[in-house]
């Protein structure tokens, strides 16, 4: 199976797990005080829904969709706006892969490698706008 199909199926299993996004943000916020500060005034219920779509956009881009949505995310996360330093995406990926491991009960080693490749491709677009 190719990387993006592996990731789509794994993501489907994660989204079917009710606490997936709660656990992702708990892990991500715990990973650094800088990240906690960035989300200090955020409505986290809304943020979880936004992230659900945001991850889908990363996957769709890796499947060949144009980069329009990711360039917009790059703008909102850039130095001039949210000021999300490129290094913080490593913590984001670590937290996401850890959470996937906790919620995808059919996860195989090859799925994790596929996730890494798919996420990095889109995150490179977002970081390039910093
Ligand atoms: C807002 C997705 C990485 C911090 C958002 C939004 C989306 C999103 C869809 C709402 C729309 C927008 O503002 O453009 C993503 C995706 C990421 C990512 C897909 C990974 C590729 C990060 C990282 C941080 C971060 C690493 C670091 C702290 C924030 C903050 C907001 C935000 C602070 C605004 C929250 C608020 O409205 O109070 N993100 N994000 N994001 N993101 Fe990200």
Automatic annotation (TrEMBL):
The answer to whether UniProt assigns keyword Iron to this entry is yes
Q: Which regions span the lipid bilayer?
A: none
Superkingdom to which the source organism belongs: Bacteria
Q: Which GO terms describe its molecular function?
A: heme binding; oxygen binding; oxygen carrier activity
| Keyword annotations of the record | Heme, Iron, Metal-binding, Oxygen transport, Transport
Every copy of the Globin domain together lies at: 1-130
InterPro entries per UniProt? Globin, Globin-like_sf, Globin/Proto, Mb-like_M
Q: Which family does it belong to?
A: Belongs to the globin family.
Q: What is the name of the protein in this document?
A: Globin domain-containing protein
